[in-house]
Structure formats: structure tokens, C-alpha cells
Amino acid sequence: MVLSSSLRRNSSKAGLAITVALAVMALFSAAPSAQAQDAAKVLKAMTDYVAGQNVISATYDTDIEVITNDLQKIQFASSGQMLLSRPDKIRATRMGGYADVELIFDGKKLSILGKNLNAYAQTDTTGSIDQLVAGLRNEFGMAIPGADLLLSGAYDELMKDVLDAKHIGRGVIDGVECDHLAFRNHDVDWQLWIEVGNRPIPRKYVITNKAVTGMPQYTLRIKDWKTDAQVAADAFAFKPPSDAKKVDFSALSDIDEVPPGVAPGVKK
């Protein structure tokens, strides 16, 4: 009787393991073209929805990993807020352990305040939010967290150089059911969780840099997403502290999410 009972338990455990293994195999053995089409369809619905919103406000948390010289993985965290008004206005903040930053673009002038430095920089510039995001990356090496999800041409930008796409299934982020997508290119793997339903907004975004030893990750979790926010008349007015010093953009180099001199190797 004891032997029989033991065999039944072991058989049950083996059966469960086999069931799980088969389920995983079934998930990843689905026709690649069908998975890619499903992933692309969900992503396109999200990017079209986001691009169609004239006003977006949200809060977010980020985690960015770095790999030290002795191959230890260290994670740095920050949080912030974002208010966007298409086509050419955005206000974003980010507070972490090493920097407290505010960025404002009112369609005519870009202002960045390093609150921890009590210093700010400004430059006259015009253009869309898309052009601002590209300019920040190319000219100043700066990035608004998750900015590529907000672009009017986000789908084309995100799908650029994608070699593989999968609709993994469903997941739950902050109690909300989401479609879980995974994409790959030569240097980067990235995942996106998109809310299920008639409001397909991004809830979580994970980027893995395969080109760096240890494959560090950047994780963005988006919360409190609103598209009906009332925008105050002075929402994009820049008001630096009275004792803040105006400096050149190059003097604001210490406003990243990680300490100076640490290169995470992950592009947001």
C-alpha cells in the first residue's frame, strides 16, 4: 500500500511536469508566421491608439541594470511623471537616487532642470515631439523613458530591424490583464505588455541588451495612464528656482539614471 501510494504520487508529479512541458512546447512551436502576425497586430493596435491620443498623462517606475567590471549585476531605480500634448508639448520628470530631472518642451523652447544640481539649460527649438525625441538622443544623448512608445510613427520605429516576433499569451500587470509580446533583433530583445480591451495602452516594457556582457535589462512600468486630463494653461511653462544657475547642456551631464561614469549599455 505504501509503495502503491508513493508510485501514484510520483506518477502524478511526473504527469504534471509532462503537462507543463507540453504546454510550453505547444506555445513556442506554434507557426512562427502566425505568432508574428498576432504580435504585430496587437502592437499596431497599441501604437495607433497611443498616437491617436492628443493628451496623455502617466506616472512610471524604471529599473536599469548595469554590469560592473567584475561582472556583478547592479540595478538602479527611479520614478517619474509625464504629460504630453500633441503635437509639440511635453513635460517629464524623473527622480532617482542620483538625479532629479525635469524636462519641458513647449513647442518653441526646450528646458531641462537638474534639480539636484540646481542648474538648468535651455535652447530654442521647434518641431514635433517625434523630432524632439530624436534630437535629444542624437544631439544630447538623452532619452525620455519609453519615448519610442509615444511617437506618432511608433509602430515603424519599434518594428525596425525586428527579426522575430511572438505573441506569448496573457499576463497581469498591476491587476490588469495584458497581451504579452516578445520581439528580437540582432542586439536587443524586448518585451511589451499591452492592456487587453478597447484601451490598448502599454503597461510594461522590458529591453534586454544582448550586445553587452551579462545582458543588462531596462524595465519600464507605466501607471495612472489618462487621456482625458485637463491641461492647465501654464502646464508647459518653465519656472526655474530663483537661485538656479543657467548653464550649457554639456554641464548637465550628471542627470542620468545611474551614477556618473557607469555605462549601462541599454538604449531606452
Describe the structure.
This protein has 268 residues and is of the alpha+beta class. It has helices at residues 2-28, 32-51, 129-140, 154-159; strands at 55-67, 73-85, 89-96, 100-105, 109-114, 119-124, 164-173, 176-184, 188-195, 202-209, 217-226, 245-246. It is globular and about 55 Å long. The longest helix is centred in the N-terminal third of the chain and has 27 residues, at 2-28. The protein contains 4 helices and 12 strands, in the order ααββββββααββββββ. It has one domain: Lipoprotein localisation LolA/LolB/LppX (outer membrane lipoprotein receptor (LolB), chain A), CATH 2.50.20.
Question: What order do the helices and strands come in, and which of them pair?
Answer:
Elements: H1 2-28, H2 32-51, E1 55-67, E2 73-85, E3 89-96, E4 100-105, E5 109-114, E6 119-124, H3 129-140, H4 154-159, E7 164-173, E8 176-184, E9 188-195, E10 202-209, E11 217-226, E12 245-246
Parallel strand pairs: 6-12
Antiparallel strand pairs: 1-2, 1-11, 2-3, 3-4, 4-5, 5-6, 7-8, 8-9, 9-10, 10-11
